[in-house]
Amino acid sequence: MLLFAASQLTGHWSAVTFDAIAIWLSNGILAAALLQLHRRPALAVLTACFAINLFSNVIRGDAGMLLWLNALMNMGEAFLCAFLARRVCGAALDMRRPKRLLTFVAFSAVPAVVVTTAVGFSLVMGMRGMGLSTAAVFKIYTFVSVELLGLLLVTPVLLLVARAHRFEGMTRARAPEAIGLFLLMLVVTTAVFWQDNLSIAYLTFPPMLLISLRLSPTKTAVALILLAGITGAATLTGHGPVHLTRLTEVAGLEGVSPMLRRLGIYNLYLLAMVATILPISTLMTERRRLEARLRARTLAAQEARWAAEDAAAARSRFLAMRSHELRTPLNGVAGFADVLASRPGLDAVAVRQARQIRQSSDGLLMLVEDILDFARGDDTLTTEPLDLAAVARETVAPGLAAAEARGLSLIIDDRLPSHARFTADRRALRQALHPLVANAVKFTERGEVVVRLDRAGDGVCIRVSDTGCGIEPSTLPDLFEAFAQGDASIRRNHSGMGLGLALAARHVRRMGGRIDVDSRVGEGSTFILNLPFERTADVVDEIRPAEASAPAEDCGRAPSVLVVDDHPVNREVARIMLEAFGCEVVEVYDGQQALDAVAEQVFDLVLMDVRMPNMDGLEATRRIRAMPGAAGGLSIVAMTADAMPEDVNLCLDAGMNAHMAKPINQAGLLSMVNLALSGDLPAARVAFEAEAA
By the number of CB atoms within 10 A of the CB, which of 15, 282, 453, 562 ranks highest? Predict the structure, then answer.
C-alpha cells in the first residue's frame, strides 16, 4: 500500500509539473500485491488502494463520473491481470522461467490492458459524445503504452524480488563485479539521457545486457527500475535522445504538445528494454539452474559410481578372503586324505575310506568355487592359444574317480585337427565344461559320458553327452536359471545347489557362444556348446607335460624344497608328500625366514604361501628375485589359498614362476616338482623385464 501511495504521488507530481505521465506504476504494484497475498488480505489491500486512488483523484481535480471511473479502471485492470496470471502462470508464479514470463505478458498483462482500455474509453467517449478521432486514437495509444509498461516493469520485478531467495547461487558475478556493472549502467544512462545533441539511446543496451547475463533477474529488475527513473526524469525535463526525434505533421494532433507525442516514443524505448532484458535474464538464470542441476546429478552419479566401485572392491576382498579361509582347512583335509590313502600297509577298507574323504573334500571345494564364481559375476576374458583337448582333459580329471566308482566310462573324443590351437580363455572354458561333466557323471547310473570336440563353421562345437536319466520337458525352460533343480523335493536322489548349469550358461555367453540341450527321458542328455573360437597357428612339435614319476636325483643329491607357510598343517601336508617323493624339505613360517634360508642354502624349488605375518610371500619373492647370483633365478611356485584370477596375476607379477591353488594333491605337487627340476616352469616375469631393461 505504501508503494501504491508513492506511485500515486509520483504520477500526480509528473502530471502537475510536466502535464504528462511518463510511467504509471500503480497498477503493476497492485497486481503484484494481489498475486502475492491470500484472498482476505488481498481484498483488504484492494479496498485500501481504491480509497487512496480516490483521494489522489480528488487532489488532482477529477469530478463526477471521472472521479470514480479512473479508480475503477485501475482496480479492474490490476484485478483482471492478477486473475489471468493465476490461471495461466500457475500457482507458483515463478517468473524465473522465460516461458512463464512470456505467458504473463501475452495472456495476462496485454489482455488486462486491452479490456480496461476498451471499457474505459467506450464509457468516456459515450458520456462525452466523442467519436474515434485521431486525437482519441493517440490518447488510446498513449494510455495502452503507459499502462502496459507499468505492468511489465513492476509486476514481474516485485514477484522476482519476493522470490529473491530462489536465486541464491544463480549469480555468476561477485559483489565487486555487480557494483561495477551497476555503476557502468548508471554512468552510461546518465550520460546518454542528460545530453541534447546525439541520438544514442542504443548505448544504454550493452550495460543492461551485461547485467542480464551476469546478475540474477532480481538485480536485473532493480537495474531496470533505476534506468526507468533516470531516463524518465531526463525525458520529462526535456533532455535526452527522445527529444531529438523529428515529429511529422499529423492532422488532428495539432493540439497535442510535442512532449506528449515524444513520450510515446520513450514508452516504446522502455518497452523494448523490458521485453529484451528480462527474458534474457530469465534465460540465463534457467541455464545456470540447469547447469547447477546437471552438476549436482553428475556429482551424485559420480558418488554412486564410487560407491559401486567401493562395493565391488569390498565384494572382491570378501570373496578373496572367503576363498582363502575355506581353502586352507580343505587343504588339510584333502592333503591328509591323500597321505593316508598312499600309506603302505593300510587295508583296502581304510584306503577306500581315505579316498572317499578326498572325494568329499573335492566335492565341497567344487561347491565353494561355484558359489564364489557365481557371486563374482563376469570378469574380463583373457584369451591365449589353447589346445582345447588338453583343457578338456584337465576339466574331466576331477571327475574320473567318481566315474570309475560308478562304473562309467569318461571319454574325450577329440575330432579337432592335430596340433590345432584356438584363441580362448582357459578359465572360462573350464568353468563352462566342469559343471556339465560333473552333472553328466552325477545323473548317469550306467553307460558312458563323452566329451566330443569338433569344428563347427568358423568356431568349435563341444558336446557333453551321457546315457543317464534325461531331463523332463517341463524342466527345460528353467534349466539354466540359478538355483533351479529338476527335482527340488526332499526325496530327490541327487545333491547340489542348482548353480552348475547357470554358471555354464553364463561363461558360454561371456565367450560369445550359445548353449543348447537335447534330452530324452530315460535315454540321456547332450549339452551342445557352440563357441566362436578363432583358430591360430598350429603347433608343429607338441610339448608334452612332465610325467608324474618320482623326481630324478641330480648326481646322487636329493631334490631340496623350501616350504614357506604360516599354517603348521599346510607345512606338514606338503612335507609328507614331498618326502614321499624323496625330497629334502626345509620348513619356514614367514617371508623373512624364507629370505634367510635362501641366502644360506641352495634349493631346487620354493613353495611360497602368500598371506603370512611379518613379510608376505609377494614381498619375499620380490626380494629373492633381487638377490645376486643363482638365488635370483630360483624356481618359486605360489602354493596358496588365494585362487582368484587377480591373485594369480599378483603372484606372477611379483616374480613367481607358477601358481598352485590349495588344496593340493600328490599328483599335482609331483608334477610341479618335476617341472622345476627339468627347467620347464614358465620364466618369471621380472626376468623378462630385466632383459628388456
Answer: 282
